């Protein structure tokens, strides 16, 4: 293996303190690792699915064995509240269970025609060597959505964790290897954007990216002529509509959590709320009261709800949205400013009287900040929900099931929620409309996406 000369500095976003430095990749080590994965993949494909599943079952057990220290590592390097780190790890175990249960059916060769000596079959053949460039906000979730099904289906994986979740990425690699996944079948690549860019230049058979639209668009441009499978899971500006008939307290409490969980740094955070005018004031007041009960502080404490903002530059994005909203007449009800360091901290922020001229209602905030807009009827709400370049998730709160169906079927979003929000299920496909990306993960489709369906035409005579 190439000796690595570069180092990546890992800083705790809650304190600004140096955690450690780790050796980083460069273009030549990335190329060497890609060659190792290429050489190792054919043998991994020959390993029976039952044995590949056994490796992932052992990995699952190791995640549970080390859960507390893995949660602490994730909290230390991302600033995520420790309880939410534990939730993520427990959630990953549930997703692994889904993949283990569904892999055989999703990849079984299907006979789709058999008449007169002619048989037609569809075989699911792994792509080969896949690259996974990942985000930091849920490093176990978004990484696991790719590497678990990719490995189960017989692919080798070149995995680049975000530079803001590097230690977690290295822990993932350590546990996969301890579980029996060969070292050259799952290879971590360490570094920031330039290491991701170097990975794009390698001979790979699929690229699975999770991150911002800005990076996704660059990757899409770079990969265009390569003609390999490209999946981009990008940002969102996820709306929810609270109908006049909704239970105000339930909706406000649920949506306060949906907007503020993980300090708003979720791709499916609630980012826009539309409330019917007849319940608007009551909803806003209950929402603000609920947010005030969420404790900000040391992310290592069990009682903390709001941890730090992982990336320092996001503080300026949030300030920019606050200033823009204030200048355009929004009413600031809570927060609206950075909190003193050390570390990256932002006060939970709530605006009322917002509209779509404001950045806050148009561009991804990715922080603990929300605008609540008044609407006069369902049509106005649907039009506003669809007035976005993004389309990851959308929801409605109402006791009226038929109205919920009617409204949600008109909304352009990959996932829709009735009386719930900020929810991901391994049993359902995860995808987006518009600038939220292309391709999908999770569900049985999210297993098959790591394969190419090969068509067999078989005449027996
Ligand atoms: P980012 O785009 O800044 O970085 C994502 C990854 O891309 C990192 O590993 C980074 O090192 C790498 N990268 C940067 N420049 C690159 C380049 N030129 N070539 C190749 N790789 C490069 O995003 P982020 O800040 O890590 O994540 C936050 C974003 O991710 C938000 O927009 C969020 O909504 C989105 N996200 C989406 C989903 C989803 O499922 N749709 C899930 C989680 C996060």
Note down, in words, how this protein is organized.
It is a single chain. With 461 residues, the chain is α/β, with parallel strands linked by helices. The chain folds into 2 domains: 6-234 and 436-459, Aldehyde Dehydrogenase, Chain A, domain 1, CATH 3.40.605.10; 238-425, Aldehyde Dehydrogenase, Chain A, domain 2 (3-Layer(aba) Sandwich). Helices cover 40% and strands 23% of the residues. The chain is built from 14 helices and 22 strands. The protein has helices at residues 27-46, 49-65, 67-78, 82-107, 139-152, 166-178, 193-200, 213-223, 248-260, 280-292, 313-327, 378-386, 401-408, 445-448; strands at 6-11, 18-24, 110-115, 118-126, 129-133, 156-160, 186-188, 206-210, 229-233, 238-242, 270-276, 331-334, 338-339, 345-346, 349-352, 369-375, 390-391, 393-397, 415-418, 433-434, 437-438, 451-459. The chain has a 7-stranded mixed sheet with strand order 12-15-16-11-10-18-19, sandwiched between helices. It has a 6-stranded mixed sheet with strand order 7-6-5-8-9-21, with helices on both faces. Helix 1 (27-46) packs across helix 7 (193-200), helix 3 (67-78) packs across helix 4 (82-107) and helix 4 packs parallel to helix 5 (139-152). The model has no long low-confidence stretch (mean pLDDT 97). Residues 133-138, 142, 160, 162-163, 192-193, 196-197, 200, 210-212, 215, 218-219, 233-236, 267, 364, 366, 392, 430, 432, 437 line the site of nicotinamide-adenine-dinucleotide.
